[in-house]
Write a structure and sequence with these properties.
single chain; zinc; 9-stranded mixed β-sheet; protease; alpha/beta; 21 helices; Rossmann fold
């Protein structure tokens, strides 16, 4: 249909005073009084409730426009209803196909998209001036090639269907399957498409028989119009490599031959869903996939009759249709009379869509084991699952109690259920892919059959996430022989901070190493002085003395968990280790403290392992250099795990003020040491303790222990033997560092060459 034929539908000519729609009445006076330099009013027309304001606008097109936009274009502003945004149509037959155009039925002029806001929002600021400005802006961008969105949206008013289909990509991708679409209860517009299991659906649910097709990228051509009948849809798909009628004959005949089992299908309204690549007006493939539903007003049986493969049974039998004997010819007139309407298609929330919505190119299908399904564990898993991340195994032996609902993703209906089951089912309910998460209701240290199940999951995992807030659990996971990369997330005691420790991809650092360096960050960062020292108020939730929980609002738990999930995503997408602390102020401000994880050197002395990081060695040598040529020293602070026989040096203090720092030796003083240790215990919640001494040697001297050092190490041995710990001394010499153990032979584990043991 030409533009002139379309205009003939508007058979009533209007002057300025003849418009019934208030917005239409306001546009003409505005153009005449205030926008004469931009264009001129030509005439008004009406067709029933539809009113058309016809203008000639000066487009401002450049001399060589990107698209063949003329210096002046005749447009029609179509007003349909007060509650519908006006449509802007281009009133020439050869108007170019561009980005930002609506997909319209054949015979409707090209219709540009000038506003992507819903009309309910746009009308709040709508004025004739804004309308004309948006149209001119569209022309300006079209002439300069600045229109970029190649999708072709549909408008329910223009297309004629308010239906919206919901389908999972996993369902869409399976060919030759029986699909059914049915209305949501009390909502006639939304249709859920599923694999057909008719016995599951209530009798009052109107079924739609659905078939799906995918247009191969190589066959895709941009649509010029939305087909408005079955014959035109068939022609459109045939141009794109799909023989619609040939396929439908086979499908529908198979349904007829099924007999009573296909009764619901043959009597359901018929719809076709097509997946098509997005193509620009210049034929270029764009990023993204488009999905269109084409809905008929006929049943599948009626279409089978039109295609000549079936005929009405004349009241015989329950099916209502029987196979046509012989090769029946399609009734072309009947097929052309079968109207179709475009409808929206909403893809189910699956990993592909989740990843794209999160700004990622593809889902993350790595196997993750989450240990701990409490507050931070449930929120972090919820966030990551919504980003299309991981195949989950959830491990926890705890049950959901009423007070847990204050800071958990669970609902009250799940109280007393195992947390692992609650969280796994929650993740599965988010994601349309079945069984993206599975629970193991067991303690990490379980030795039963459940323990074996945990061991198997950990051994097969790509990622292990500790969310237990348990030091013992984190260290157990750190020492586990599995190959998976590990991370740990937890709140601080006051619930105003969140911590992320993430191992590097090659596990050259472990959670134990990162734990020690995290404590070092807390010790050396003034902003984190109360990070571990201040605790939240507690609330008793039963009469038992240990049945208490922290008073932490969900708003804080949610924010901090989101930050932890964000940091965890970034870390696991990269290769490097991470140590990050987020702190949330009462006014909502967030501060971030991060440490660059340092390489770790380890020694073994007897059955003890001693480790320290490169940052500690640098800090010791900085303190040595500051006092040269005199000797200096101080105390060593470390993280001790007595059952595991491990010490990780965390920091070294400078010399107390009453120390004797001379060219020939160093004697550590005691002034302020007690206060320092009290501060260390407060800032680290008692985790960091005194583990030994350090001192420097003069310029040009090695780190080899002297006779005086031997006397001191004997004194240390006697002191630390009370705690069943080895005597430990660090000596900083010229370009090297020595670790000294009393009466122990130190065997170096993989380490840096500038550090030696003695």
């Amino acid at each position: 249909m030409s533009v002139s034929a379309w205009l003939e539908e508007f058979n009533e000519t209007l002057d300025v005073s003849g418009f019934r729609h208030a917005p239409a009445r306001s546009v003409v006076p505005y153009v005449q009084r205030y926008a004469a330099q931009a264009g001129a009013f030509v005439e008004g027309r009406r067709d029933g409730e539809r009113e058309l304001v016809i203008l000639d606008l000066r487009t401002g097109a450049p001399q060589r426009p990107f698209y063949p936009i003329k210096p002046a274009e005749r447009i029609g502003i179509l007003f349909v209803r007060e509650d519908v945004q006006p449509f802007v149509t281009m009133l020439r037959d050869d108007f170019p196909d561009t980005e930002h155009q609506l997909l319209v039925p054949e015979g409707v002029p090209a219709t540009i998209c000038i506003d992507d806001r819903p009309w309910g929002e746009a009308r709040l600021t709508w004025t004739p001036a804004e309308l004309i400005e948006r149209i001119l802006s569209w022309f300006h961008r079209a002439g300069r090639g600045e229109l970029h969105d190649a999708r072709q949206p549909i408008d329910p008013v223009m297309i004629g269907s308010h239906l919206s289909f919901y389908i999972a990509r996993s369902v869409l991708n399976e060919a030759d399957q029986d699909l059914i679409a049915f209305h949501r209860e009390n909502d006639g517009r939304m249709l859920r498409v599923e694999r057909a299991q008719p016995s599951r659906y209530p009798d009052n649910a109107e079924p739609f028989s659905v078939v799906t097709y995918r247009v191969p990228p190589g066959n895709m051509k941009r649509l010029k119009y939305a087909p408005d009948n079955l014959a035109r849809l068939s022609a459109m798909l045939e141009e794109r490599g799909i023989q619609l009628f040939h396929d439908l004959k086979q499908r529908l005949l198979a349904w007829v031959d099924q007999g009573e089992g296909a009764t619901w299908r043959l009597h359901g309204r018929f719809a076709i869903i097509v997946e098509m690549p997005v193509v620009s007006p210049r034929g270029e493939q764009q990023d993204g996939i488009d999905h269109r539903a084409f809905v008929t007003g006929k049943t599948a049986g009626d279409i089978a009759v039109g295609l000549g493969v079936a005929q009405p049974s004349g009241g015989h039998g329950k099916v209502g249709y029987v196979r046509t004997i012989g090769a029946g010819a399609p009734d072309e007139a009947a097929i052309a009379d079968i109207e179709i309407f475009c409808a929206e298609v909403n893809l189910a929330f699956e990993p592909d869509l989740a990843a794209r919505l999160a700004g990622r190119g593809a889902p993350d299908g790595r196997a993750a084991v989450l240990i701990g399904a409490g507050a931070i564990g449930s929120h972090v898993a919820d966030s990551l699952a919504r980003e299309g991340r991981f195949r989950w195994t959830i491990t926890d032996d705890d049950r959901l109690l009423p007070h847990n609902l204050a800071r958990h993703v669970a609902t009250g209906t799940r109280v007393m259920d195992p947390k692992a089951e609650v969280l796994a089912q929650h993740l599965n309910s988010i994601n349309h892919v079945a069984h993206c998460a599975r629970p193991i209701v067991a303690n990490l240290f379980e030795s039963s059959e459940k323990g074996e199940e945990i061991e198997k999951a950990v051994a097969e995992a790509d990622i292990i996430i500790d969310a237990t807030a348990s030091v013992a659990a984190a260290r157990y996971l750190s020492d586990h022989p599995a190959a998976a990369r590990r991370a740990s997330v937890f709140f601080n005691p006051a619930g105003e901070g969140a911590v992320l420790l993430a191992e590097p991809a090659g596990r050259t650092l472990t959670l134990r190493d990162l734990e020690a360096q995290y404590f070092g960050l807390v010790l050396r960062t003034e902003h984190l002085r109360d990070h571990l020292g201040r605790r939240a108020e507690t609330v008793a939730y039963t009469g038992a003395c240990r049945a208490i929980t922290n008073r932490i609002p969900q708003s804080c738990a949610s924010i901090l968990s989101g930050l932890a999930a964000l940091g965890l995503s970034a870390a696991l997408d990269g290769e490097d280790a991470a140590i990050t602390v987020w702190s949330l102020a009462p006014d909502g401000a967030v501060s971030v403290e991060a440490a660059t994880p340092e390489a770790v050197t380890a020694f073994r002395a007897g059955d003890w392992q001693i480790a320290f990081d490169a940052g500690l060695i640098r800090r010791v040598h900085v303190m040595r250099d500051a006092k040269l040529p005199a000797e200096t020293g101080g105390i060593l602070l470390g993280l001790v795990d007595i059952p595991a026989r491990r010490i990780h040096l965390v920091d070294a203090t400078p010399a107390p003020h009453d120390s004797c720092e001379e060219l020939s030796g160093f004697v550590r003083g005691i002034e302020g040491v007690s206060a320092i240790m009290d501060e260390v215990r407060l800032r680290t919640a008692g985790q960091i303790r005194y583990v030994g001494e350090w001192h420097s040697h003069p310029p040009h001297s090695s780190a080899r222990p002297s006779a005086v050092d031997g006397v001191q190490i004997d004194w240390l041995a006697a002191l630390l033997d009370m705690d069943t710990m080895p005597a430990l001394m660090l000596i900083a010499g010229e370009g090297e560092t020595a670790i000294i153990f009393a009466d122990q032979k130190a065997d170096a584990l993989p380490q840096e060459p500038s550090v030696r043991g003695a």
